[in-house]
Amino acid sequence: MARTTFSGPLRVGNAQKQNNPEFAGAVALVAWGQIPDPTAAATTDVQRWSFGSGSTGQLILPPNSVVYRLEVDGATSGGTNPTFNLGWKNANDSTSFDVDGLVVNGDADGDGIIKWGDTTAGDDLATILPNQQSTVGYDPIIITGGVGNSAPTGGVIAFRIYYFIWDFTNGYDGSQK
Hints:
Number of helices: 0
Oligomer: single chain
CATH architecture: Sandwich
Largest sheet: 7 strands, antiparallel
Order of helices and strands: EEEEEEEEEEEEE
Helix content: under 10%
Number of strands: 13
Radius of gyration: 17 Å
Shape: globular
CATH class: Mainly Beta
Strand content: over 45%
Structural class: mainly beta
Number of domains: 1
Distance between the termini: 32 Å
């Protein structure tokens, strides 16, 4: 399958107009991942997921990612109302991280959608990651995840992360001139 890499905003319609050009805005992206051991510490790297090859390697998002929605398929076993945390760490700066920045005590044995403002949404959901905390510039972020306040005893937690890239050069989310 072909892969395309580009930077900058997508334009639609009369994008070349001098007055009020039209922009499509930010491109929504989806990353698939899973927590293969929901009993592990929340600092554990999650695995990216591919239908063709299963779980392979770390789930890494590009610099300036803004995660705005997660779809979770919790298939854990055991425990009383088991929960999980989902966070991130800076790929190049070990002091820049938040183990529950995306999900705080999410339901580990049920399906659901987590978005900004939900009670289980972490404080970094819908913000630019890595929150400009890095001392080495804008770096990729590695998604981490594991047990929340109530531990499951086994199973797996699969999820989809919906995000876009914040564009500092061309107008924030890409929708501005």
